[in-house]
Amino acid sequence: MFDRLEITLLPRGARFAAQVRFWVNGEDVVAGAVHEGGRGPLAADVLPAGRPSPLRATSEGRRLELGEPECTGDCCGFLSVVVQRFMEVVQWSDWEVPWEGAHPAAPPPEFHFDAGQYDAEVARAEAGHWWGRR
Description:
134 residues; alpha+beta; three-stranded antiparallel β-sheet; 4 helices; globular
């Protein structure tokens, strides 16, 4: 059974630009790993206008930053994952998580997505550049 990805956008606010959140199987991955006050990546970085999103999965695995704690990733580390396509499966694995005090947060589990559903969700998010308008 495959995991299911949903990409949502938090519109820009008074202090922050629009952010991306990743829901897997109905759970907010960023909130689960970086806790209250944590932020997802900026929409402009993950869903850049005029070019493919780094979320697109290829056969070559690459590490992507998906979130950071309230204190910023430069302080306590980022939530990041390796995204890689294996034929009809997209895998998120090898998580790195921010530190909480003297200990790292618990990493999310490895996720396996049906490549068709994953590609469709990334394309849907790429097409929805409403967050960039004023």
